[in-house]
Specification:
By secondary structure, the chain is mainly α. It is built from 5 helices and no strands. Helix 2 runs parallel beside helix 4.
Length: 162
């Protein structure tokens, strides 16, 4: 991954994390700045990892299919493919455009279909299915962990003596 692509992935992760954390900060005005910074850094790392792993996960799913032929190494992001992800992350703030965010993510996923199909030797529709399953699976895993951590965090704060 080139330094430009890595920078774009980290910025997209930062923007996605900020879109998730700002509503929390707006609802709970008592959250301290160090806690917000920690959440932002952790969220950036997680969201950046998810974005970076999307092509590899889709390629791995395609390679697991019985009619796949390994023709090339796993595809990665290019700057042109990550730029819509960055734009999608910028507008991911709740109530500002979840449908537009979904459309941009769908466009970024569509950009992965060709490289995944070429790298795994499967057809375009099969590669599109692998990209979609990988994207939804990664998003569901992150959301499940996010809810679990949120639930643990709220239970821990309730148990603290006042």
């Amino acid at each position: 991954m080139s330094p430009l692509v890595l920078t774009l992935v980290v910025l997209a992760g930062l923007s996605e994390a900020a879109g998730r954390i700002l509503p929390l900060v707006a609802r709970r005005r008592t959250v301290s700045p160090p806690v917000v910074a920690g959440l932002l850094l952790t969220g950036t790392a997680v969201e950046s990892a998810v974005i970076a792993l999307w092509p590899l996960t889709a390629w791995t799913l395609a390679e697991m299919l019985p009619h796949a032929t390994e023709t090339a190494a796993a595809p990665g992001w290019t700057a042109a493919q990550v730029a819509p992800m960055l734009l999608g992350a910028v507008i991911a703030f709740p109530l500002l455009g979840p449908l537009l965010h979904l459309m941009l993510l769908t466009g970024a996923g569509a950009g992965l279909v060709g490289p995944v199909a070429a790298a795994s030797g499967v057809g375009g529709w099969v590669a599109a299915g692998c990209v979609a399953v990988a994207g939804v699976g990664l998003a569901a895993a992150v959301e499940a962990v996010r809810r679990l951590v949120g639930r643990i965090g709220t239970n821990a704060t309730r148990e603290l003596p006042a």
